[in-house]
Design goal:
With about 110 residues, the chain is an alpha+beta fold. The protein has a single domain, classed as Aspartate Aminotransferase, domain 1 (Alpha-Beta Complex), CATH 3.90.1150.50. It has five helices and four strands. A four-stranded antiparallel sheet has the order 1-2-4-3. Strand 3 (about 65-70) and strand 4 (about 75) form a beta hairpin. It is globular. The N and C termini lie far apart (about 40 Å). Residues about 100-109 have low confidence and may be disordered.
Length: about 110
């Protein structure tokens, strides 16, 4: 959608880019079963509705010390990510989507 708008109208203003980012984030969050996302000056906190779907080890490997994983809350440290925190927040929500779509291994396998 962003590319179509850019092709038709040129580079969008910053406000439009921010709106498109929020729409992408909301769509991914909805698909991942995210209840809420709260962004403060220091961190972005993602609250999931089903903590059973969180693969803590995989997320820790992917995001390293920038991510703290709780039972239902994931804390992404904006200070450790610098200017790329928005992209990493999208990647975190995408990783939750992929985790929630992965089949759970059978205890017998």
């Amino acid at each position: 959608m962003a590319q179509e708008l850019a092709d038709r109208f040129g580079k969008p203003p910053k406000a439009a880019e921010a709106l498109l980012y929020i729409l992408r984030l909301k769509a991914r969050a909805s698909a991942a079963g995210v209840e809420s996302i709260k962004v403060t000056a220091g961190e972005a906190t993602v609250k999931v509705s089903d903590p059973q779907g969180i693969n803590q080890a995989a997320l820790t490997r992917r995001f390293g010390p920038a991510l703290r994983v709780g039972v239902r809350l994931l804390h992404l440290d904006r200070r450790k990510l610098g200017g790329r925190w928005r992209e990493e927040l999208l990647a975190l929500v995408q990783a939750l989507t992929l985790t929630s779509l992965s089949p759970t291994p059978s205890p017998l396998s």
